[in-house]
Amino acid sequence: MSKIISKKKQNNTPKKKITKEALTKAIKGSYGIISTIAKRLKCERKTVYNKFEEWPELKDLLIEERNEIVDLAENKLVSKIKSGEKTSIHFILKTLGKNRGYVEKIQSENTNIDVDVSELSDYGLERLKRGDDPREVILDLKSRNIQKHE
Q1: Residue 83 is inside which H or E element, if any?
Q2: Burial of 134 (0-12, 13-18, 19+ CB in 10 A)
Q3: Please, where are the H alpha helices in the chain?
Q4: 121 domain residue, yes or no
Q5: Domain that holds residue 30
Q6: In this predicted model, what pLDDT tens digit does every residue of 69-91 receive, in sequence order?
Q7: What is the DSSP letter of 147?
Q8: Is 12 contained in some domain?
Q9: Exposure letters 91-125 (e unless 16+ CB within 10 A, then b)
Q10: Count of structural domains within the chain
Q11: Beta carbons of 93 and 117 less than 8 angstroms apart
């Protein structure tokens, strides 16, 4: 009877010790992207995660780095809004403007109207931007039958 022996590939390369200082340096400028940090340290992503468990205080630095890329994206978004790019305007209104009534779908309790903001005309969007009550804008546009035009 022959025996089948499973051979695991053994990596005899000694593991490189990752220091707290090396991890700190690798985090800086990485935008918090774990694969970037791992490449800089020449290790696996799992090792990076393990090091964050070992040094939890470095998680704050990682969060700061991730905030950097969000800041960059926000700056680009503001530039697009300033140039009048409609998709960016819609996005910011649907996210940051929710508390002002700018949502993907608006339902008025009194009239039971569902309206998709992306279907509003430029005139309707301008009225919302001026601060007009969203319910009034929607009702007015519905009564005039003003729809989005390309």
Answers
A1: none
A2: buried
A3: 20-27, 34-41, 45-54, 59-82, 86-95, 122-130, 134-144
A4: yes
A5: 20-70
A6: 999 999 999 999 999 999 999 88
A7: -
A8: no
A9: ebbeeebeeebbbeebeeeeeeeebebeebeeebb
A10: 2
A11: yes
- 46 to each of 41, 74, 96, 122, 138, how far by Cα in Å? 12, 30, 35, 49, 51
Pairwise CA distance, residues 145 & 150, whole Å: 15
pTM for this model (two decimals): 0.53
The pair of three-digit structure tokens given for residue 34, joined into one six-digit string: 């774990």
Tokens representing residue 117 in the block: 């903001």
The count of other CB atoms within 10 Å of the CB of residue 143 is 8
14: confidence class by pLDDT, cuts 50, 70, 90: low
> Between the CA of residue 144 and those of 19, 83, 122, 125, what are the distances in Å?
68, 29, 14, 15
Q: How far apart are CA 108 and CA 62, in angstroms?
A: 43
